[in-house]
Each structure stands twice: as structure tokens, then as C-alpha cells.
Amino acid sequence: MTVQLRGRLLEAVFGRWLPKVVYRAADPTHAENVRGGFFRSGGVRLFGEGLATVVFWSSQPREIMTALAEQGVQTTWHERPPKVWTRP
Description:
Blueprint: E1 2-3, H1 8-14, E2 21-22, E3 28-36, E4 42-48, E5 54-57, H2 61-70, E6 74-76, E7 83-84
Parallel strand pairs: 3-6, 3-7
Antiparallel strand pairs: 1-2, 3-4, 4-5
């Protein structure tokens, strides 16, 4: 899977400051749901062996977690998700 900004406009405006991180389908070893510390939006944090931890925001974190679990990724769903500020 490729984790990056969606949309050409967002990529054009913010792409040089926010790096693109590529996870192959087998790379994530664990995923958990999180929420933003400022806006409280939902997201998913991916952990991979020897890879950078990546947080990406989504309006459908439960669906993403279900899809990851179906691919064999260990997932943790928190009823009270941990807050993520600027660093994953």
C-alpha cells in the first residue's frame, strides 16, 4: 500500500513537506486506531519492522482496520483511541 496525500492539489501544495511513504502489502506488522490531538479526527497508525511509523487520517478508520486484519495485519481497536499530535 502507498500512504500519501490524495488529490493533485493537496500533493502540489503540501507534497514537498510531507514525504511519501511506501508500505508493501506485507510490511505493516501492526495497526491501531488513533485520534488527532487538536481536531480529534480519526486515523490509523501503521507500524512496520524497520520502517517509519505512519499515521494517516480517514473518516473510515474501522473499515481500514478491518481490511488490514483481513490481510493478516495484527490490529488493535481502542474504544478511547490514543491521541496523536505532530509526531506518530
